[in-house]
Amino acid sequence: MLGLIRWTFWITVWLIIAAFFHYTLPQVDIVRVTDTYEKRIDPGENRLFWAKADVGTDGTIANRDVFFIQTRRVGGDVMVYRNEDTGWGWPPYFKFDTSNLQAEAGDLKSAEANPRYVAIKHYGWRNEFLTIFPNAISVRAVDGPDASKGIPWLNIILLTLIAAVVYGIWVRWRRFRKARIDPTVEAIEDDLAEASGAVTSWFGSWRKKK
């Protein structure tokens, strides 16, 4: 039972970590921009998945106008991106050019009869039930629907560094446990075994006397 609880705990922890990185790290989609628009948003229970107001504006207002970029993927699926500054907040993309990005996306709009494809770099998820959208970071024109998305060097380097740090901590923890904790636990177990043996011996001799 304890083993099942332990496995459930660690699986849950690693799933949360994986979800965090999948949401935060940048991804690239090859899409066709169909429209750009601005909409008044009143963040509610999904407030966590919206960025703050644009840098330099009043961030205390509950509702605000947010830019959106409507697209179609190569397979025909619709994908809608929000376009918000991240500023100095999290995730640390230091994005301050929301208006410029909206203008670039609007200039790259195309119809199905004469498509122009773009690569949109973004982070986040799209979920219709929670009404959350990935946040566009950059947009650039590409040659066609089969254009390369590029090698995600940032993701590779960052995940490699994190894996190295986690491995280093794990190795040092094992050494510390082997050198300090395991001997202490073994000594306590030996003392308890000796005490239990002494009690058993005393109880046996007491019964013989009776």
From TrEMBL:
It holds the Pfam family DUF1523. InterPro entries: Phage_phiNM3_A0EWY4 (IPR011088). It comes from the Bacteria. The chain crosses the membrane at residues 7-25, 150-170. Keywords: Membrane, Transmembrane, Transmembrane helix. This is Uncharacterized protein DUF1523.
